[in-house]
Write a structure and sequence with these properties.
AcylCoA_DH/ox_N_sf; oxidoreductase; 10 helices; FAD; Butyryl-CoA Dehydrogenase, subunit A, domain 3; single chain; about 50% helix; Butyryl-Coa Dehydrogenase, subunit A, domain 1; globular; 8-stranded mixed beta sheet; Butyryl-CoA Dehydrogenase, subunit A, domain 2; alpha+beta
């Protein structure tokens, strides 16, 4: 199939019109990635061919600002791409999601990164397909979202920094070019923040430990930093620990954090919803062709089966409406409270898991057979629970807000 490039209508003012992506291209990529998804799942190999295909169509730099050569895509366009990729091979979609989230953060006018480093990272994505992800989770700390100081330490040495530490779940590490490392300084009053480390810097060592139930091709291995030297200005965003709280800073800072959270939950929600859609598609084909001798007709003719498929459709429709609404709000500049973004993730991922569970219930042993994709979809969709924010934190925050609101009203 010939390349179908990004489409960008002519700009009518100083702000370039965001790029859009051809639907036929997305359908083609979904089918292409689905054809090798089982191979990547079995081997756990990084999906290099998938990213070569994405880069050939300009999709790695899709979210990067037009000023840096990128597509300047809206959340709606980024969501369509992530959903299409995930419908074919969700580990590829997860790695791409992490890069999109970093590019969106860098595109904000309030980014604290030095302009020349923003330019370098974004240009490398557009021109070379360079991927970036944040490395935050540690063996002792867990997720920084739960609080606490990282054990990864950056110390001033000469005209730069030296970094030592150990990170877990570094999604996409085998294909990354840039590592946004969460660390603390060794100062008397430690600052915490992001240090930009080139993936090929001496002292960066990967421990190939990722052997997971689902998203096996994401390559979320461990990374050890041993005396890794970076330049002084690669400490791209350092703050006092208290200044990293979601409600710290000005209202502009709070709104920016909420918008970043909304991007994350919409893209992750779209990814796992797409896995559920792929499960529904396989199930529909199975039910229409499976005709037991005792029935003399396809399983799709049974009212009980039709009822359960109707439940699947209801769950997927709910997801679509919620994701559409949240996407529209973000792209129209309406701030979304972080609590609402958390509830979106909780509802969409819970529905997605339920869809695949119903598909397994209707398909029986066929759905659990390794030669069929449904058991892989189930393993992949279960991974939705582990992304920040986790369900317990989401529900506690929502419950606390509801109770405080009710108490104030009383």
């Amino acid at each position: 199939m010939s390349a179908l490039p990004l489409r960008r209508p002519p700009a009518t003012n100083e702000d370039p019109t965001p790029a859009t992506v051809d639907a036929a291209l997305l359908a083609h990529l979904s089918a292409q990635f689905a054809a090798t998804a089982a191979d990547h799942d079995r081997s756990g190999a990084f999906p290099h061919p998938n990213f070569a295909a994405l880069q050939s169509h300009g999709l790695v730099g899709l979210v990067a600002p037009a000023a840096h050569g990128g597509g300047g895509a809206t959340l709606a366009t980024a969501r369509r791409v992530i959903a299409a990729v995930a419908r074919g091979e969700p580990a590829t979609a997860l790695i791409l999601t992490m890069t999109y989230l970093q590019h969106h953060a860098l595109a904000r006018s309030d980014s604290r990164w030095p302009p020349h480093l923003r330019e370098r990272v974004l240009r490398s994505a557009v021109e070379r397909g360079a991927l970036i992800n944040a490395l935050r989770v540690e063996p002792a700390l867990g997720s920084p979202a739960r609080g606490g100081l990282p054990a990864t330490v950056a110390r001033r040495e000469g005209s730069g920094w030296k970094i030592d530490g150990h990170k877990l779940y570094t999604t996409g590490i085998e294909g990354l070019s840039w590592l946004a490392v969460w660390a603390r300084t060794d100062e008397a009053a430690p600052r915490t923040g992001v240090f930009l480390v080139p993936r090929d810097a001496p002292g960066v060592r990967v421990i190939a430990s990722w052997d997971h139930l689902g998203l096996r091709a994401s390559g979320s291995h461990e990374v050890v930093f041993e005396n890794v030297a970076i330049e002084l200005d690669h400490a791209v965003d350092l703050r006092a620990p208290a200044d990293w709280a979601p409600d710290a800073g000005s209202q502009t800072d709070i709104d920016a954090h909420a918008t970043q959270q909304a991007w994350m939950t919409v893209l992750l929600g779209s990814l796992y919803d797409a896995v559920a859609q792929a499960a529904r598609d396989w199930l529909a084909g199975f039910l229409n062709t499976r005709a037991p001798g005792s029935l003399g007709a396809p399983l799709a003719s049974l009212p009980r089966v039709q009822e359960h498929v109707g439940e699947i459709e209801a769950l997927l429709r709910t997801n679509r409406v919620l994701l559409d609404d949240a996407t529209r709000a973000v792209d129209q500049g309406r701030a979304q409270p972080a609590t609402d973004s958390g509830l979106l993730k909780y509802t969409v991922t819970t529905n997605a898991i339920r869809v695949v569970e119903l598909a397994l219930q209707l398909s029986g042993n066929h759905g659990l057979t390794r030669q069929n994709p449904l058991e892989r979809h189930y393993r992949d969709v279960l991974c939705s629970r582990i992304h920040t924010p986790q369900n317990d934190a989401i529900l506690v925050a929502a419950g606390k807000r509801a109770l405080l609101s009710a108490g104030a009203a009383a």
